[in-house]
Amino acid sequence: MNPDDVWRGIDDQRGRLVDLLEDLSGQEWQHPSLCEGWSVRQVAAHVALQNTPWSAMPQGVVEIIKAGGMNGAIHAMACRHAQLPAERIVAEIRERIGVWHPLPMVTYRESAIDYLVHLQDIAIPLGREVATPVDVAAVAAERVWRSPRMFHARRRFAGYRIVATDVDWCAGQGREVTGPISTILLLLTGRRAGLDRLTGPGADAVRAGMGVGP
Fold first, then answer.
1. What angle do CA 127, 118, 184 make, to 5 degrees?
2. Which CATH class for the 3-126 domain?
3. Do the two domains 3-126 and 134-209 of this chain adopt the same fold?
4. What is the DSSP letter of 4?
5. Which of 56, 93, 157, 177 has its CA at 20 to 30 Å from residue 192's CA atom?
6. Could you give the C-alpha distances from 97 to 22, 123, 147, 153, 158, in angstroms and in order?
7. What does the mean pLDDT of the chain come to?
8. Is 32 helix (H, G, I), strand (E, B) or coil?
9. What is the pLDDT of residue 93?
């Protein structure tokens, strides 16, 4: 896919996320997300922080130092942003629709990961079904697989050949694991949701490695 097509898919997911958040009750905003220790509200706030301007980067460095690392800083900033009214959080995400440039130091590929995965982080625990564009998910999955620093998917799934059933994408070598690209993307990013949709000789071992029983 060319970058413009990926951005169109990202905008699709931004719009779907806005529609979903606008439909949530107050209780659903507080519901746990797929991200361990994060509420739906905190994940939404994290996505809203995609509007962070370059001028905020020095403060971001301070947050990393105070939190003892990148992950801690990301969580701390999301928790603080989550204190804003829900309407403000949704509005900030809506404002991003049509903005076809990423945050500093990332590319459209990382933006695809953020929007596709975090939308499912919110939707799945609430029992909401939101479609994932398979071509864009393949771009995101490829970036996760090849990245030396994000999620360490190649190390965690060494010895498996992971094959999508609904788009032309595969990675790795070994016992085959097949499934929809949306499930594979969640798997590669450490989520346990939907692993019952995986099939193939290596599927049970992958589920066991993720702490999901038969």
1. 80
2. mainly alpha
3. no
4. H
5. 93
6. 15, 19, 26, 29, 37
7. 90
8. strand
9. 96
> Percentage of the chain with pLDDT > 70?
88
| Of residues 137, 150, 147, the one with CA closest to residue 184 | 137
The one-letter amino acid code at 3 reads: P
Instruction: Identify whether the C-beta of residue 86 lies closer than 8 Å to the C-beta of residue 150.
Output: no
> Residues 11-41: pLDDT tens digits?
999 999 999 999 999 999 999 999 989 999 9
Long-range contacts, 49-56 (Cβ 8 Å, 24+): 49/77, 49/78, 49/81, 50/93, 50/96, 50/103, 50/111, 50/114, 51/92, 51/95, 51/96, 52/103, 54/104
The model's pTM is 0.90
105-114: average pLDDT: 93
**Angstrom distance (rounded) from CA 160 to CA 180:** 16
Rounded (5°) CA angle 90-132-22: 20
Tell me the pLDDT tens digit for each residue of 179-212: 999 999 999 999 999 999 999 999 999 999 998 7
Q: How far apart are CA 47 and CA 135, in angstroms?
A: 21
Single-letter amino acid, residue 112: A
Pairing of strands 175-179, 170-171: unpaired
Q: What CATH class is the domain 134-209?
A: alpha beta
Q: Where along the chain do its domains lie?
A: 3-126, 134-209
